[in-house]
């Protein structure tokens, strides 16, 4: 289902931030930086990705899931459950 996402700008900003953190990790590894520093930066990448996922998930719940329930769209509900399972792995 294609639709306009309410939080597109926020998602793109967070993804840009995550990409920046990941580039910093690559540079740190190339420079031979301390493993502890690299791990801290990797934690920032994971956090940025998870927070981006939360925004997308909230958007999906507030729009797609409500629509699927109203329309009794079993396929969309199954797809939503599958997406949640994959996101939480």
Structural class: mainly alpha
Count of helical regions = 3
- Mean pLDDT reading: 89
- State the shape: elongated
User: What's the β-strand tally?
Assistant: 0
Poorly predicted spans: none
Question: Helicity, in percent?
Answer: over 70%
Biggest sheet features: none
- Subunit organisation of the chains: single chain
The fraction of residues assigned to DSSP E strands is under 5%
Distance between the termini: 23 Å
Radius of gyration: 17 Å
The H-and-E topology, N to C, reads as: HHH
Description:
- The protein has 89 residues and is mostly helical.
- 84% of the residues lie in helices and 0% in strands.
- It has helices at 8-30, 35-71, 74-88.
- α1 (8-30) runs antiparallel to α2 and α2 runs antiparallel to α3 (74-88).
- The two termini are 23 Å apart.
- The mean pLDDT is 89.
SSE inventory with pairings:
Elements: H1 8-30, H2 35-71, H3 74-88
Features:
3 helices, 84% helix, single chain, mainly alpha, 89 residues
Quickly describe the structure:
This protein is mainly alpha-helical and 89 residues long. It is built from three helices and no strands.
